[in-house]
UniProtKB/TrEMBL annotation:
This is Uncharacterized protein. It comes from Pseudoalteromonas citrea.
Length: 448
């Protein structure tokens, strides 16, 4: 069941809160991705930005407890990315499209106790174990996705071509991973050993970490070696919220713990990602003409918690490249890559007392430098706009104003940098986790 009865796709945004487990939050995110719109006619099929690939048994996304997996895989449709599938506008123009499919894999159960007799990277997870508080996300092409006949869908391990000479292959995590990839020898990690420090490091360096802030490795796991018997998840009375925007050329997603603005990066948890086709700086038109460009699909993400404080990016795919690139630091000039974003506190006011909001630009692939930019995200000094504040910007030659919603500041007490995400609703509408109706995009309340 969708939240808005509307047959045709239109860009939308939604914010929901009150989640105490990552599984319940991610299940809601997936529901907003694959079934936000519901066709007014029960016999019809609404146009949504993604389709659910896994689980394949048509799960009830409104009831997370009824789903016996923590892994979800969705694939982009032509509504969220014209090159991901057949888009009606391209068909009408008579253009030939070579599909460039891409997927998002969510794993909200990283760290659950596995079968004690099993000790390799394909752990036999106990889905009934309490949540220990780690979320891993991969964005890639379907070619990096392993679909076993039994067990959850996994990402293939990644072994760089220049590794493993004369020794066992060195695994560098997985491709398209949002977080810090840790190098390990194959089977070096004791996935079933709750005291294995390398396993814990790999688990904690993902997109969102909910482990308690005190030293869980020494305090909890020394006293309770069987972590399946102890709920060591992030404190349940600190709920989580998320904001999601789905456009016709990409998505933006942010997850944070509520009311933690008085803490610095070590005391709060806030993660965000943007995955989109670049847009022209003058017109705002997405770069999707395959006859003129390799049309890179780019992912930029930021993670702040007790284990990471990073902002990185990678190219998910190009028209003729079918794998994610190595991720790079988005805040520094490095070889063949320029900084996309300034992570420090900065001046965002001109001499004429105009506020300045910047958007990331200067994307490099291994072959080309792109003048286009990422319009799904902006950034400015945190004191320019508050969290949940909305800025309306005239950015492109189409003459329309684009809305951007402020996210959590990077520093304590609303200091440092503030990330803004593209916001398509006419108001800041916060829904609880039951799923209240949103402002319908394209309604008389405003233009999009």
């Amino acid at each position: 069941m969708g939240f808005v009865k509307k047959a045709e796709f239109a860009p939308y945004s939604v914010e929901r809160g009150g989640y105490t487990t990552l599984k319940s939050l991610i299940t809601a995110v997936v529901r907003d991705l694959v079934s936000y719109y519901e066709h007014p006619d029960e016999s019809g099929t609404a146009q949504n930005g993604f389709k659910l690939l896994y689980p394949m048994d048509n799960p009830d996304l409104g009831d997370p407890d009824s789903i016996d997996t923590d892994v979800f895989v969705v694939q982009a449709t032509g509504h969220v990315d014209p090159l991901a599938g057949v888009d009606p506008s391209f068909e009408a123009a008579g253009a030939d499209i070579i599909p460039q499919p891409w997927i998002i894999r969510f794993d909200a159960g990283v760290g659950k106790q596995c079968n004690p007799t099993h000790n390799n990277r394909r752990e036999d997870r106990n889905n009934n174990a309490p949540e220990v508080g780690n979320l891993h996300i991969n964005i890639s092409t379907p070619l990096q996705l392993h679909q076993p006949t039994v067990g959850d869908w996994q990402m293939y391990d990644y072994t760089p071509p220049n590794r493993g000479v004369g020794d066992e292959p060195v695994v560098i995590g997985t491709l398209g991973f949002l977080g810090e990839r840790i190098a390990v020898q194959d089977k070096q990690v004791a996935w079933c050993d709750p005291n294995d420090s390398l396993r814990l490091e790999i688990e904690d360096k993902g997109f969102f970490c909910r482990r308690p802030l005190y030293n869980i490795k020494t305090e909890f796991e020394s006293n309770y070696p069987d972590t399946a018997l102890v709920n060591i998840a992030g404190t349940p009375n600190i709920p989580m919220s998320y904001a999601l925007s789905v456009s016709d050329h990409g998505i933006a997603l942010a997850i944070w713990e509520e009311a933690t603005d008085q803490y610095d990066a070590k005391g709060h948890r806030h993660s965000w990602l943007v995955c989109q086709r670049l847009v022209d700086k003058e017109t705002g038109k997405p770069l999707v003409e395959q006859a003129e460009s390799h049309c890179p699909l780019t992912c930029l993400y930021g993670i702040q918690n007790q284990t990471q404080d990073i902002t990185r990016y990678f190219v998910v795919r190009e028209s003729d490249v079918h794998r994610p690139s190595e991720d790079l630091d988005a805040t520094a000039n490095t070889r063949d890559s320029v900084a996309l974003i300034n992570p420090q506190e900065q001046i965002s006011v001109t001499e004429n007392y105009e506020y300045v909001i910047s958007v990331p630009s200067g994307i490099n692939t291994q072959r080309y430098f792109y003048l286009e930019e990422m319009d799904m995200l902006g950034y400015c000094s945190a004191d320019i706009i508050s969290q949940d504040g909305v800025a309306e910007l005239s950015m492109y030659s189409d003459g329309t104003k684009k809305r951007y919603k402020g996210l959590r500041a990077t520093g304590k007490y609303n200091s440092g940098l503030r990330i803004l995400m593209r916001w398509y609703n006419t108001a800041i509408t916060t829904q609880n986790n039951v799923g209240q109706p949103d402002v319908v995009p394209g309604s008389s309340a405003g233009s999009y």
